[in-house]
Structure to design on (744 residues):
C-alpha cells in the first residue's frame, strides 16, 4: 500500500471567516484519552457543556446541546425539526447564509417567502412586520444574526417582540455571532438558535451549539409528519442529551471535551468582557483599514466587529494579495463570496484572534503588500 | 458566570462497540495547530485522506471522502443521495442498523421492503434474490456488512454478483467492518459504502468515510428531485473534495488531520495483516468466553471477530457486572441493544483494541467478577 508522510501543519494566523485561532489548552483537551459516549464520566461532561452553552446563549432552555456536525448541520437541525411540508417560512436573505436557510426549508417542503435585501444591508424589521401581515400563517421567521458573507449585524429585538405572543417561531443563525456580539436568546424571544464552534468560541470546527425554546419544543412535539432527517432528529437526540441517555449515535467525545475546554475559557473571561474585546479590536481594524484605500461593505451602524467585509478598489488584485499574505506572512483571511467574490476580503477577528497585536500584524503585512 | 473544572478523563480500556482505543499519535495529530479548510496545505491532506480511504475500501471510486459527522451521518448521506420519493428500497433488517437504514429510507420517501431476519442471523442471499424477483424495479438493496448490534458478518459477494448488471444499486453499511474484516468494494460490486472512524480504524468518533461507485454517481446525476438534506448533499460536497474546491461547509480540519494519522497507521500495518490480527484476537476471545458459561449470539460461521455479542445466563446480572467492570477495572464493554438488552454484552476488539493482552485483561476481570 502507498504510504504518505505525517501531516505537519504550517503555522497560520487564522484571521479569515473561520476556523479562528484555537487556544493550546483546547487542542490539548482534544488529545486527552478517549472515553465512551455512554461513560458516566462523559455524561457529566455533556451536562456541563449544556450548562455552559445556556450561559453563553443567555437562556434557560432545557433543550440546549451541541449537534454532531459543523455549523451547517446546526442550521439543518434547526430548520428540519420545526418545518413540515406545506409550512410557510419567512426568511431574510441578505447574504449566503440566509439563502441556505431558504434552500434547506424548501428541501423540507416549506413554501419560502424570501425577504431579499442587497448584500451588506440588514433586513429591516419593518419588512418582517409587513411579511407577517401578508402571511399570518407563517410557521417561522428566520434571520441571520451575523452574516458571515457580508459582516452585517442584524438587529433581532424588534422581530422578537413582534413574534413573541404569536404562534410563529423565531429562528436565528448566530454561527459567527455567539460570544462575539451581544445575543440574548431569552430576553429577545428567540426560539431556535444555532451556532458553530470555529468562530468566536475559538474551538475547532465540527460541532454546532443549538438551543430550542419551550415554544419550539411544543411545535416539535405537535408535528404530524416525521422529521426528514434521521441523524438530526431532535426528538431522538434529546433523549441522549436529556434524562434517559438513550443511545442515538456515537457522540464525538474527544471533540466535545475540546468544546468543554473552550467554553470554560469563554466563561472565565466573562461574556460581556468578551463582547467588549471583540467590539474594541474590530473597531480598531475597521478604522485603520479604511486608510488603506479599502471600503467597508457592511452598512454603517450594523457592522460586526468580529467579521469585516473589506472592499478593494479595482486596481488591487485581492486574490494575489491574499495568496501572498498566506504564503509569505502565514496569515489567512477569506475571499469574498457571491456578489463580493473577487473584489473583497473577509477578515475575522474572532475569539483568540481578536487582539490588538493581530490587527497590527495584519495591517503591517497589508501595507507591505500594497507597496510591493 | 458559573465555572466548572477542566475535564480530565479517567483512563479506560475501550472494549465496547465503539469508540475503540486510539493511538497516542492520532490524538497528538488532532492537537496540532489548526489550519483553514481552504488552505492549500490542508487540501493536500484531504487528497491524501481520500487516497488512503480508496486503498482501505479497495476501490478506485473517485467519489470517496469523509462525511463531517459520525457513522450515522454516513448512513444518512448514503441513503438520501440515491433515494427519491416513490423509490422501492429493499433493506435487510436483522438488527438495529438495518432498521435505521429502513427508517432513513422511509424519511426520504421510499417504499421500503424490509427483509426481516432474527437477530443474530444473516440475511440469506436467496432472500435478496427472491425480493429482487418480486421487486425488479428496486432502486437499491441495502445490507449491513457488520451488524454492531449482533456481531453478524453478512456475506456480500453473491448479492453483488446478482446486482452488478442491473440498474439496482447495492448499499452497504460497514461502520464496524472497515479495516477489521475483508471488504472489497470494487471486486464485490458495492455501490454506496459507508463506515465510521471510531471502530476498526481506531480514530475518535465524528467522521464517516464513504465511497460512491460511478454507477451510484450516475444515479445521483440523474435525480429528478432535490436531495432532502442540504448538509449531506453529495452534489455540493463533492465540489469541495473534488476539483474546484468550492466552499460548502467548514470541514472539521483538526479531526481530519487525526483521521489522516489513523489511516497512515492502517496503511503501514497492511490491510491483510490487520484483518488477520482481528480474526485471530477475536477468535481467541470467542473460544474462551464460552468457557465462562456464556453463549455467542451470532450465527456460527458468520461471526465478526471484532464485535462479539455475548449472551449471559439468567443468573448473571450483566448490567451490574458491566458497571463493576468499568468502575473497578476501567474496562468498557457495551450492553445489548433491542432484543438483546439486559441479557447480553457487546465486546469490541477493534483496531488498537485487538490485542492478546487486552483479551487476557478482560477475561481475568470477568473471572473475578463472576466469582465475586
Amino acid at each position: 500500500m502507498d504510504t504518505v508522510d505525517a501531516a505537519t501543519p504550517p503555522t497560520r494566523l487564522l484571521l479569515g471567516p473561520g476556523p479562528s485561532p484555537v487556544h493550546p489548552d483546547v487542542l490539548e483537551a482534544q488529545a486527552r484519552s478517549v472515553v465512551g459516549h455512554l461513560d458516566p464520566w462523559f455524561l457529566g461532561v455533556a451536562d456541563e457543556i449544556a450548562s455552559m452553552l445556556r450561559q453563553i446563549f443567555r437562556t434557560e432552555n432545557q433543550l440546549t446541546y451541541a449537534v454532531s456536525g459543523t455549523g451547517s448541520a446546526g442550521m439543518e437541525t434547526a430548520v428540519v425539526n420545526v418545518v413540515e411540508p406545506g409550512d410557510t417560512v419567512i426568511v431574510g436573505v441578505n447574504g449566503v447564509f440566509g439563502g441556505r436557510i431558504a434552500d434547506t426549508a424548501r428541501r423540507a417542503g416549506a413554501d419560502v417567502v424570501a425577504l431579499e435585501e442587497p448584500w451588506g444591508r440588514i433586513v429591516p424589521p419593518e419588512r418582517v412586520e409587513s411579511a407577517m401581515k401578508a402571511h399570518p400563517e407563517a410557521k417561522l421567521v428566520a434571520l441571520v444574526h451575523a452574516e458571515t458573507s457580508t459582516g452585517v449585524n442584524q438587529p433581532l429585538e424588534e422581530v422578537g417582540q413582534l413574534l413573541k405572543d404569536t404562534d410563529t417561531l423565531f429562528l436565528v443563525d448566530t454561527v459567527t455571532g455567539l460570544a462575539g456580539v451581544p445575543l440574548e436568546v431569552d430576553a429577545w424571544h428567540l426560539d431556535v438558535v444555532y451556532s458553530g464552534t470555529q468562530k468566536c468560541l475559538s474551538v475547532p470546527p465540527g460541532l454546532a451549539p443549538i438551543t430550542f425554546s419551550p415554544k419550539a419544543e411544543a411545535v416539535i412535539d405537535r408535528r404530524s409528519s416525521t422529521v426528514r432527517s434521521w441523524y438530526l432528529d431532535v426528538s431522538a437526540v434529546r433523549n441522549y442529551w436529556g434524562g434517559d441517555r438513550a443511545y442515538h449515535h456515537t457522540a464525538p467525545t474527544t471533540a466535545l471535551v475540546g468544546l468543554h475546554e473552550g467554553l470554560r475559557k469563554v466563561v472565565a473571561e466573562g461574556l460581556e468582557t468578551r463582547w467588549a474585546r471583540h467590539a474594541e479590536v474590530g473597531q480598531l481594524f475597521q478604522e485603520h483599514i479604511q486608510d488603506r484605500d479599502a471600503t467597508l461593505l457592511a452598512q454603517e451602524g450594523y457592522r460586526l466587529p468580529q467579521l469585516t467585509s473589506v472592499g478593494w478598489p479595482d486596481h488591487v488584485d485581492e486574490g494575489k494579495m491574499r495568496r501572498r499574505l498566506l504564503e509569505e506572512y502565514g496569515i489567512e483571511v477569506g475571499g469574498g463570496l457571491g456578489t463580493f467574490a473577487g473584489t473583497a476580503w473577509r477578515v475575522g477577528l474572532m475569539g483568540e484572534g481578536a487582539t490588538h497585536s493581530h490587527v497590527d500584524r495584519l495591517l503591517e503585512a497589508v501595507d507591505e503588500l500594497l507597496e510591493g
